[in-house]
Amino acid sequence: MKAAIGVNGYGTIGKRVAEAVRSMPDMELKGIVKYTPDYTVITASRQGIPVYVPEGKEGLFEEVGVRPAGTIEELLKSVNLVVDASPGGKGALNKPTYAKWGVKAVFEGGEKPDVAEVSFSTLCNYNEGLDKRYIRVVSCNTTGLLRLICLLDRHIGVKRVRAVIVRRASDPKEDKGIVNTIKLDPPAIPSHHALDVKTVLPNLDIESVALIAPTTLMHVHIVYVRLKRESNLNEVIELLSSIPRIALIEASRMGLDSTGKIVELARDLGRKRYDIYENIVWRDMVKVDGEDLTIVQAVHQEAIVIPENIDAIRASLGLASNAEESMELTDRFLNIGLLR
Amino acid sequence: MKAAIGVNGYGTIGKRVAEAVRSMPDMELKGIVKYTPDYTVITASRQGIPVYVPEGKEGLFEEVGVRPAGTIEELLKSVNLVVDASPGGKGALNKPTYAKWGVKAVFEGGEKPDVAEVSFSTLCNYNEGLDKRYIRVVSCNTTGLLRLICLLDRHIGVKRVRAVIVRRASDPKEDKGIVNTIKLDPPAIPSHHALDVKTVLPNLDIESVALIAPTTLMHVHIVYVRLKRESNLNEVIELLSSIPRIALIEASRMGLDSTGKIVELARDLGRKRYDIYENIVWRDMVKVDGEDLTIVQAVHQEAIVIPENIDAIRASLGLASNAEESMELTDRFLNIGLLR
Predict the structure, then answer these.
(1) Partner A contacted by B211 (CB < 8 A)
(2) Which of A90, A91, B177, B298 could make an SS bond with A111 (beta carbons 3.0 to 4.6 A apart)?
(3) What is the average pLDDT across B18-22?
(4) Same domain, yes or no, for A73 and A101?
């Protein structure tokens, strides 16, 4: 029997999680919750996704031609787990309602860590998520960092990480963002990213510096890793190539030396909305010097956390007993593995 | 008697060097060389700067109302030293002409290192420039890095440097640059910046990664330094505060957390063209952890090399016997020292 899933909030993350749930063989999307009748109600409805709304707001949705499937409470009564994709900080406010209806919940990285029993990243701590009522999937930059760090740590050992994060200014649909400037975000060391990594790996020696650049497409990370032993380029490349969620691309030979070109590749591959679930690691930008490793990667902020959300659902509901089993399903049914 | 200086080329660097030479008490600007009669001929002429032109082109300049002071050869005959501020790579082609007229020359960082006897950065190797016929002043990013590195090395000792350089896409006047993308520049490690630093400090363990962001104002550097001994925040802040060419600013308290705001400060201070000669080091972004130092700074690509050009002139002509003597004059007469 498929697990019954609801998605509360249908913005950047919610709409992607909803679609991903629908493509999984072990999950059924019971519906999503929308609070305002904007264009995404239409796109949800056209895909046949049941739209649940706050009680008393049904009329507003009927005005734009969408008949709600029911109220939020009715959705919650019918699901095993809800993915809370509401704006950052609102998830915590929704939690009592989930508790009231006895529904498990997956929260996003915009919530404070204490919203959940565990902050989650599949490659790092899938097992800690097993059977938990409340799981928090860390944010996009943290997910991008943790995939690298935990893969390296498991196979080689990671002693220390220094990361520079060049963030995108806003998502394409957000209109407003910095223009012609580079901004410290925040004007302090470490940025919250190192702290967020520590919600998953509390003992890691990590520091991060974050800037914002005036662009909307992807984040770029420069990651300096001190390994626990000497390694070499072949070993690192082989390791990074070993999981579909990390895509190694050649900047020079393939002409993919910018985030703009990576997005064009995803568009040409027919990826919906050009969603890129993979860490894009430039093979030309991996350097190993004994214990010192430098990696430069790009991260699609809108899409990268989707696989981990699906894995978090599986962990919470015990649908897969370990990370490998869940990742195999998630990656296969999301067609993860750019250029594979 | 003042040293007689010519400037060959009147673009981004040439016009700033020319003005800086005019403000120095020990130098006289004999004139600049212009190849095309564009608007900068007018701005030069309005400042009373003699404009020299290629033989046979006098008429083109007279058409825009500027009577040339003479030909390139006539300028070269009248100077002790010429600053070659022609487009990158052209300096090497001009060198035989300088040799023919027995004129010393200062070249810019766009030339290959072998154009000169020494690649130059005041705080690192002023003495190596003393009495040299040909000196190359390293480029803007390299100058910004070397000021930090050599100051730290002289007083604390530098074991190793890892630098991330987030470059501006183009200068304000250049119109064309990347838009809404982040580009590897180049798609390889190290970028040329580490190599250029090594033209001055050949034995330094340094690696650099460079990206371009879609902005025109300033470069931003994230510099990780391994010191030769343990230090602390007070010592490092005191050291960085000790020279006017490094300006420490507080991002949070002063509201200066972006390159845009730093440029606004320079505009409000009445800096011509908002030229910023100083490394702008964010005090909030200096972190010391034993031997490990992290520094984030902004560098105004159009202006930062001007002080070093003036010092290079002094070194070549023996106008000052050491770096401190030259820097004192340069900094005083350029009013260097933002917010001092």
Answers:
(1) yes
(2) A91
(3) 98
(4) yes
Say yes or no to pLDDT of A11 above 90.
yes
pTM over 0.90: yes
Inside any domain, residue A211: yes
Instruction: Give which of B243, B242, B281, B321 is closest to B26, Cα–Cα.
Output: B321
Do A7 and A134 have their domain in common?
yes
Q: Are residues A71 and A161 in the same domain?
A: no
Query: What is the pLDDT, as a whole number, of residue A288?
Result: 98
Name the minimum distance, in Å, from the CA of B213 to any CA of chain A: 6
Residue A339 in this model has a pLDDT that exceeds 90: no
B337 to chain A, closest Cα gap in Å:
22
Burial class (CB in 10 A: 0-12, 13-18, 19+), A26: middle
Cis bond before residue B186 (omega within 30° of 0): yes
Q: Tell me, yes or no, if A180 comes closer than 8 A to chain B by beta carbon.
A: yes
Catalytic machinery residues of A: 140
Residue of B nearest to A284 (CA): B188
pLDDT band at A16 (very low <50, low <70, confident <90, very high): very high
Nearest-Cα distance to chain A for B99, in Å, is 40
Quick check: B234 pLDDT over 90? yes
Strand, coil or helix: what is A262? helix
CATH number assigned to the domain comprising residue B67: 3.40.50.720
Q: Residue B260's closest chain A neighbor by CA?
A: A181
Residues 212-251, chain A, touching B (beta carbon < 8 A)? 213-218, 220, 222, 224, 251
Percent of chain B with pLDDT over 90: 99
For residues B206-232, give the mean pLDDT.
98
Instruction: Assess contact for A44 and A14: CB atoms under 8 A.
Output: no
Q: What is the mean pLDDT of chain B?
A: 97
Q: What is the spatial distance between Cα A67 and Cα B307, in angstroms, rounded to a whole number?
A: 70
- Identify whether the C-beta of residue A250 lies closer than 8 Å to the C-beta of residue A284: yes
- Is the model's pLDDT at B279 over the cut of 90? yes
Classify residue A27: in a domain, yes or no.
Answer: yes
Residues B29 and B123 in one domain: yes
For A126-173, what is each residue's pLDDT tens digit?
A: 999 999 999 999 999 999 999 999 999 999 999 999 999 999 999 999
Check: CB of residue B281 under 8 Å from CB of residue A186: no
DSSP A188: S
Torsional sign, CA A222, A227, A231, A237: negative
Under a CB-based contact definition with an 8 Å cutoff, are residues B255 and A246 in contact?
no
The domain containing residue A316 runs over which residues? 3-138+305-333
CA distances from B183 to A174, A178, A220, A253 (A): 22, 18, 9, 15
Taking residue B170's Cβ as centre, other Cβ atoms within 10 Å add up to 16
Q: Is B124 a catalytic residue?
A: no
Contact at 8 Å (CB) between A307 and A336? yes
> The tokens of B269 are what?
């201070």
Among B189, B257, B298, select the one facing A287 at the smallest CB separation.
B189
pLDDT band at residue B340 under the 50/70/90 scheme: confident
Contact state of A187 with B257 under an 8 Å Cβ cutoff: yes
Residues B134 and B145 reside in one and the same domain: no
**pLDDT grade, residue B339 (50/70/90)?**
confident
A282 touching B (Cβ < 8 Å): yes
Residue ranges with strand state E in B37-157: 51-53, 70-71, 81-84, 104-107, 118-120, 134-137
Do the chains contact at A260 and B296, CB–CB below 8 Å?
no
Q: What is the CATH number of the domain that holds B181?
A: 3.30.360.10
